Amino acid sequence: MNIDGKRYTGERALFSSDGLVITDTIFDDGESPLKESSNISLLRCMFKWKYPLWYCENISMDRCTVFEMGRAGIWYTNNISVTNTLIEAPKIFRRCVGLTVSDTDIVNASETLWACEDVELRNVTAKGDYFAMNCTDMDIDGLNLVGNYPFDGLRDSTVRNSTLMSKDAFWNCENVTVENCFISGEYLGWNSSCLTFVNCTIESLQGLCYIDGLKLINCRLLNTSLAFEYSTLDAELIGTVDSVKNPVSGRIVCDGIGELIMDDANPSRTDIIIRNKDNV
Questions:
Q1: Cα(134)–Cα(94) distance, integer angstroms
Q2: Global pTM value
């Protein structure tokens, strides 16, 4: 069934629908217009009120717009594809499984993407705090994020070719790899395990501390001080590090360390290799 150019108001306007192709349609004042629906294709639709897609299955959205009051819009929904869409609403994805978002702007990404599984993000721009908390199996390529506390509790995931302007990113993570990224923000990566950075540029006050199994491969640490406190690590760095404080054990290879602080660590447990010893 095709729906084209309609305007719906009122609660549960198309509740429990199946097999609809909806084009150029406005969902206005009224909660949960498509709750419990399945096999829905949405093209150039507008969502202006709360909870539009809850408990849904097999949804595609292309060139849609979710307005600010479409908040908490997509929860408990599985197998959903979102492309070329503008999302103004916060808290947009929760507890979704099988989610793909591409070429999409999330301009108010506060508390967005919580507890989701099997997620692909491609060329997404987002702004807001607490992005992607407690997610599993994320595959991210081309994310531009401005907002603090992202990826808290992330598991079994990869982030590539992204820019994160984020304090307290990647806390409490496990088995996460970050490749070809720029990250700027204090206290990066605390309380995580098996956290790997490859070809990244990082700026972080007291970054990369309290990590069990930290690995850095071909990374630059710019304006980064008091790094690696209470971490076990294997770090091969380009350039110098402003200061290193009390790593637990492992290896650091770099061109120089501005200040090495070992007042609460056993120096014999960490191998420090300086390529140019004049920079120690």
A1: 10
A2: 0.94
